[in-house]
Description:
It is built from 3 helices and no strands.
Amino acid sequence: MTRPDPSDKIWRRAEIQSPCVKICVIHPEARLCVGCHRSIEEIAGWSQLSSDARAEIMAELPGRSGILRKRRGGRAARTGARDES
């Protein structure tokens, strides 16, 4: 099997690729994917968005990670131990 020539324009994509990291779980309160931090609407419409719209979303994603940092349950919730930081 031959590999495509990287200089061949047919194999290049100009649009911004998806930030998906294949951890597709929607946080119930924030309504954001815990993997890529996009909303359900952004995920569903990604392929239809312009490069500019994708770039805007990509620029916002790092700031959204703080929304999902604190866990709601787990051992700390069951035992009453809380992280006060």
